[in-house]
Amino acid sequence: RRAAMAAAEKTQRYESFVSDVLQRDLRRVQEQQDEVWQQQAQVLQLHSALSRLLEAPAPLQTKVDLGCNFFVAAEVTDPRRIFVALGFGFFAELTLPEALRHLERRNQLLQRLSNSLSRDGAKIRAHIRLVLE
């Protein structure tokens, strides 16, 4: 009888470990993965827009959103240089080819991070499976 109670108690501790620790860690990794995927989508969208901008004639006719979906016509006299947000409030003025290279490096970094998070998630799922079995 004591052995059965000890086994039940041990099972309860394992289940608590799975739900309190491993499931929480897995959710955190999945949230980070989702955030990385969103950043990758933004980088790819920006890369596509800059690629099209390379082919645009100068001066570039566009519309600028002033806020609240209020647009005004604008003319960019020299679309060959743009400002790129580097993070932490820093910006760099880059040529379009430099900006495209920057985005390619950023995408590679995000891909490595995504792969790392995928491996972490697989390890956690394997631990959950192992504990449950």
TrEMBL record:
<dbReference type="InterPro" id="IPR009053">
    <property type="entry name" value="Prefoldin"/>
</dbReference>
<dbReference type="Pfam" id="PF02996">
    <property type="entry name" value="Prefoldin"/>
</dbReference>
<dbReference type="InterPro" id="IPR004127">
    <property type="entry name" value="Prefoldin_subunit_alpha"/>
</dbReference>
<protein>
    <submittedName>
        <fullName>UXT protein</fullName>
    </submittedName>
</protein>
<comment type="similarity">
    <text>Belongs to the UXT family.</text>
</comment>
<dbReference type="GO" id="GO:0003714">
    <property type="term" value="F:transcription corepressor activity"/>
</dbReference>
<dbReference type="GO" id="GO:0016592">
    <property type="term" value="C:mediator complex"/>
</dbReference>
<dbReference type="InterPro" id="IPR003994">
    <property type="entry name" value="UXT"/>
</dbReference>
<dbReference type="GO" id="GO:0045944">
    <property type="term" value="P:positive regulation of transcription by RNA polymerase II"/>
</dbReference>
<dbReference type="GO" id="GO:0000122">
    <property type="term" value="P:negative regulation of transcription by RNA polymerase II"/>
</dbReference>
